From TrEMBL:
<keyword id="KW-0547">Nucleotide-binding</keyword>
<dbReference type="GO" id="GO:0008750">
    <property type="term" value="F:proton-translocating NAD(P)+ transhydrogenase activity"/>
</dbReference>
<dbReference type="GO" id="GO:0050661">
    <property type="term" value="F:NADP binding"/>
</dbReference>
<keyword id="KW-1278">Translocase</keyword>
<dbReference type="InterPro" id="IPR007698">
    <property type="entry name" value="AlaDH/PNT_NAD(H)-bd"/>
</dbReference>
<dbReference type="GO" id="GO:0005886">
    <property type="term" value="C:plasma membrane"/>
</dbReference>
<feature type="domain" description="Alanine dehydrogenase/pyridine nucleotide transhydrogenase NAD(H)-binding">
    <location>
        <begin position="147"/>
        <end position="311"/>
    </location>
</feature>
<protein>
    <recommendedName>
        <fullName>proton-translocating NAD(P)(+) transhydrogenase</fullName>
        <ecNumber>7.1.1.1</ecNumber>
    </recommendedName>
</protein>
<dbReference type="Pfam" id="PF01262">
    <property type="entry name" value="AlaDh_PNT_C"/>
</dbReference>
<dbReference type="InterPro" id="IPR008143">
    <property type="entry name" value="Ala_DH/PNT_CS2"/>
</dbReference>
<keyword id="KW-0520">NAD</keyword>
<comment type="function">
    <text>The transhydrogenation between NADH and NADP is coupled to respiration and ATP hydrolysis and functions as a proton pump across the membrane.</text>
</comment>
<dbReference type="GO" id="GO:0016491">
    <property type="term" value="F:oxidoreductase activity"/>
</dbReference>
<dbReference type="GO" id="GO:0006740">
    <property type="term" value="P:NADPH regeneration"/>
</dbReference>
<dbReference type="InterPro" id="IPR007886">
    <property type="entry name" value="AlaDH/PNT_N"/>
</dbReference>
<comment type="similarity">
    <text>Belongs to the AlaDH/PNT family.</text>
</comment>
<keyword id="KW-0521">NADP</keyword>
Length: 380
């Protein structure tokens, strides 16, 4: 099959869907690949490297000519959708729950679409799990941002001038991003505490050398390993218990999210007020409303009490070389798995295809998206 790799045009998006070494493997498997000129430049993969890997280089919309598959990172805009050949399959981080109207546009164009973030988290699909590979990078970069913004050392240091106490870091949410943040903060020498409403992750947090914050009366283990949405009563208990833990921290990193929902507010204005001047909050849920009540997506603000609140947006794109490398391997694994009988098989009976396919041959098959489109205003 012929695979097209266009240049990403979303603001701040520096990743590329396929990197040269992965392209060489796909071409070795019998596929033809065309890459738009400059597609990998922002991730430091030059056109020459793609050409040496065997890819054809095309300018602009010519990259889509004859494509069976279009591999992207971010969802395309209307003009890019219009350039995709009818009958082709779009693969990317398409955010269907956040923008169901975009899914409708894929259907109108007569293409199929697979959302990488909807790949089920099963043993078989581990190599395809782009959500995890990118979240891990986000967790790492959140700690780097916090360390840069904090006017203190992370590690304990003993010097001739005296001993410097280590920073205290609280990581809220112990999914992939949270666990990576915990591990990175520990490697920098901080005293780290992890919190998650799912008690099942306690051992994972402790295995990284961090303490686990337990809040009685709150248990949110949901389907697929995700946290379920808490009840209003549980949220009240959680927020009250959080104020003390947050107030005693130099750094708070928040990663809590429920798929398809607004991020839960876990760090209230009162909790921010309890933190010492110079403290830092990095909110990885900023794009879906933020875990901190004061977060502004894409901005760093300073509270009246001198706390810096970083509304982190698309952190994986700020580490584009490795983020692209990992994402490309996810895409390769998915395409290799689905390629059968000289075509991409989007079989509804296959667990992975059933989970990831949102549009099949111009028909919307993702039930949450169909429900959102049917609701007043068509939003979730």
């Amino acid at each position: 099959m012929k695979i097209a790799v266009p240049k990403e045009r979303a603001p701040g998006e520096h990743r590329v869907a396929l990197v040269p070494d992965v392209i060489a493997k796909l071409i070795g498997g019998g596929h033809a690949i065309t890459v738009e000129r400059g597609a990998g430049a922002a991730a430091f993969y030059p056109d020459d490297a793609y050409a040496k890997a065997g890819a054809a280089i095309a300018d602009g919309a010519a990259v889509y000519a004859g494509a069976d598959v279009v591999a992207r990172v971010a969802k395309p805009d209307d003009a890019e959708v219009a350039a995709i050949p009818a009958g082709a399959t779009l693969v990317g981080l398409l955010a269907p729950l956040g923008d169901p109207r975009s899914v409708e546009r894929y259907a109108q164009r007569g293409i199929s679409a697979l959302a990488m973030e909807l790949i089920p988290r099963t043993t078989l699909a581990q190599a395809m799990d782009a959500l995890s590979s990118q979240a891990s990078i986000g967790g790492y970069k959140a700690v780097v941002l916090a360390a840069e913004a904090l006017p203190k050392y992370f590690p304990m240091l003993t010097t001739a001038a005296g001993t410097v106490q280590p920073a205290k870091v609280l990581v809220i949410g112990a999914g992939v991003a949270g666990l990576q943040a915990i591990g990175t903060a520990r490697r920098l020498g901080a005293i780290v505490t992890g919190y998650d409403a799912r008690s099942a992750v306690k051992e994972q947090v402790q295995s990284l050398g961090a303490k686990f914050l337990e809040i009685a009366g709150v248990e949110a283990t949901g389907q697929g390993g995700y946290a379920r949405e808490l009840t209003p009563e549980e949220i009240a208990i959680q927020r009250a218990a959080m104020v003390k833990a947050i107030g005693g921290s130099d750094v708070v990193i928040t990663t809590a999210a429920v798929p398809g929902r607004k991020a839960p507010v876990l760090v209230t204005a009162d909790a921010v007020a309890a933190m010492a001047p110079g403290s830092v909050i990095v909110d990885l849920a900023a794009e879906t409303g933020g875990n901190c009540e004061l977060t502004r997506a894409g901005q760093t603000i300073v509270s009246e009490g001198g706390v810096s609140i970083i509304g982190a947006v698309n952190l994986p794109a700020t580490v584009p070389t490795h983020a692209s490398q990992l994402y490309a391997r996810n895409v390769q694994a998915l395409l290799t798995y689905l390629y059968r009988d000289e075509r991409l098989a989007l079989d509804a009976n296959d667990e992975i295809a059933r989970g990831a396919v949102i549009v099949r041959a111009g028909e919307i098959v993702h039930e949450p998206t169909k429900s959102a489109l049917a609701a007043p205003g068509g939003v979730v």
